Every structure is written in C-alpha cells, then in structure tokens.
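Good morning,

Attaching, inline, the backbone tokens for the sequence recovery test we're adding to the shared suite. The designed sequence is right after.
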C-alpha cells in the first residue's frame, strides 16, 4: 500500500511541469514580492506585526534559557512558510488585478480540506524536533551553563576547543535542507491547486533538483534577510516577513508551469 501511494503521488506530481530558471531568478522574485507588498500593504504588514509580536513574546519567555531561544528562533524559520499562506492568496489575487480584503486572507485559515493543516502539523513537528535537539546538544555538551546570549557566544560560538558550534550548525543544516526542499514550492502549490500533500512535496523536490543553484541562493537569501530583519528588536520582520512571503509566491509561479 505505501508503494502504491507513493507511485500515485509521483504520477500526480508529474502532471505539474517544473521549469528551469536562471541563477538570478531569486532577485526577480524579491522584486516582484516587494511590488506586491506595497500594492496591497495591509494584509502583509498585519502578518509582519503578528510575527514580530510572536517573536518578542518568545524572547521574553525564553530570555533566561538562550539554548531554548536559539533553537526556537531557528525552528521558527522552518515553520514560517505555512504562516505566510494568507499572503500567497494576496499575491494570487493581485495577479488577477484585485487587492483582496482582509477576509480573503483570513478565509485561507478555514480550509475546506485538511491538506494545508496536515502540512503545517508536519512542519511543526520538524520545528519542535529541532528545538529539542538544539537544547539537548547545547546543554549536554557546553562547558558551562548557557542561559544568556553572551554565554552562548562565549561557550558555544567562540569556544577555544571542541566542535559544539560546528555540530550545532551541521545538525541544523541537515534538518533544514530537506524541510526547505519539501516546502519551498509545496505550500503555495497546495493553496493554488488540487494536489495531494505527498505529490506537492515531490513537486517541490523536483523543482529543487532541477534548479539547485537558484534555490540554494534563494535559501541563503531567505535566511540572511530574516536574520537581518531580526536584528533591530525583531521590528524588521514587520516588512521582511510579508516581503519574503510574496516573493515565495512568485518563486512558485516561476518554477511550476
């Protein structure tokens, strides 16, 4: 039965043609995403404010447990794409020449089927797994207690010996890479078309395998711009989060015919 299910999902995925794009395509996606944000700013800025407020609440809750904070914020990068689903609907409406009311965005969170909900649960499990792994690694192998950001920098990042920071980065990359490959196209595809979750994931992997260099650059831009946006007390997320969400919609449109 699992083999038959996988075969059906692969057949369904192959109905969606994947396009090859140039290495500079991510810059074009960013430009289109920026234009979408300011053509219909209210939904995007509200999304950004909610994410920034959530990040601030997380920082206040875990300020004395930096090992948890570091894992939680990096785990947030894994589940952030599902939080942007409403903004994909905005970009789709803008393609049709309308700026949708906020009700259209909210309606996405009341789906008629459970595909997006299932995918969100899977991403949440991946994020939770990374938080637990990160906490166990740092608390188990750090040469002292890591409770504040400066202690993380001193005992983990700038440690004179050992491999803890390198192992932390490697484990994070090992988890993030397959999650990125599985979700970069899958979430907007699930919103836009009638396709199963496994078929959407396979389509996303096909897009990555067909365009390794552009999507590697896209992953770097997503992480880099998000980290920069977090620096000014997370306030940069108010603009950066919706900008990247709209740009992700254009990545999907460019990659899937």
């Amino acid at each position: 039965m699992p083999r038959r299910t996988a075969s059906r999902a692969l057949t369904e995925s192959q109905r969606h043609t994947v396009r090859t794009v140039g290495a500079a395509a991510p810059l074009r996606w960013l430009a289109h995403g920026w234009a979408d944000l300011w053509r219909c700013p209210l939904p995007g800025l509200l999304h950004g404010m909610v994410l920034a407020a959530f990040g601030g609440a997380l920082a206040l809750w875990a300020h004395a447990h930096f090992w948890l904070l570091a894992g939680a914020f990096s785990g947030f990068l894994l589940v952030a794409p599902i939080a942007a689903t409403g903004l994909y609907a905005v970009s789709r409406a803008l393609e049709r020449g309308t700026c949708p009311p906020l009700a259209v965005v909210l309606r996405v969170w009341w789906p008629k089927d459970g595909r997006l909900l299932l995918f969100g649960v899977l991403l949440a499990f991946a994020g939770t797994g990374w938080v637990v792994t990160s906490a166990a690694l740092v608390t188990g192998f750090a040469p002292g207690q890591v409770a504040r950001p400066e202690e993380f920098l001193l005992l983990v990042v700038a440690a004179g010996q050992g491999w803890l920071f390198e192992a932390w980065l490697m484990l994070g990359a090992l988890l993030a890479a397959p999650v990125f490959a599985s979700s970069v196209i899958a979430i907007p595809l699930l919103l836009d078309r009638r396709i199963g979750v496994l078929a959407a994931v396979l389509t996303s992997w096909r897009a990555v395998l067909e365009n390794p260099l552009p999507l590697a650059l896209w992953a770097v831009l997503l992480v880099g711009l998000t980290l920069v946006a977090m620096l000014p007390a997370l306030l940069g997320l108010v603009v950066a989060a919706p900008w990247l969400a709209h740009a992700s919609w254009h990545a999907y449109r460019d990659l899937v015919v």
